[in-house]
Amino acid sequence: MKVAIFSESNADEVAIRILVDGILGTRTEVPSPMPPIRSRGWGAVLRDLPMALRHLHYQSDAHAMLVVLDSDRSPLHRASDCQSAKPPKKCRLCQMATILTQVQNTLAPRPTYGPLRMALGLAVPQIEAWYLAGRDPHVSEAAWMVGLQSGKPPYTGGSLKKQVYGTDEPLLEMETSRAKEEAERIVREGKLSLLEQLFPGGFGSLAGDVRSW
Length: 213
What we know:
By secondary structure, the protein is mostly helical. The protein has one domain (3-211). The protein is 50% helix and 8% strand. The chain is built from ten helices and three strands. It has helices spanning 10-24, 42-59, 79-82, 92-104, 128-131, 141-150, 157-165, 172-188, 192-198, 203-211, and strands at residues 3-6, 64-70, 117-123. Strands 1-2-3 form a three-stranded parallel beta sheet, sandwiched between helices. The model has no long low-confidence stretch (mean pLDDT 92).
């Protein structure tokens, strides 16, 4: 299965593929050709999603498209809230879903490979929190939500990076190596279910989408 993965870092995309392969129980491949996305950051990824989807649909052999963004301090994704009459406007997962649905509705049929399958995830507050599943029980969506509501976050982006990389400013090579190591550990130790329990809105949504493929 050929799956295009987009996130805010090349290092994260390596780790995400390992987690997805763990969910599927098989190894996925990178589609060809991939869209020429060069910029990063959640805003840039959102901006480039329409171009990326059209490229994959019309010009690649992709079977699926998967996108993961960091939540930072934006609203956490909760299915009950996001499906209500007044969903939170700044939920990044919902923003992704809206953009992709709008683009999909304009696409012509894709006879050779069929429609692209989709999976969306939201790392709360950033993907380093996922890498700590099974290492730090205090890092979770619930803990982050309580911190946001109280105005006293339980940890910072920098502190999460230090736990994972040993520094809050890792070089890309180190970031990729450590992200890969932690993702492989999570799969090897059977911690995917724990990851889903700790991050039900962000990783749970992603896992549910992937299983629906």
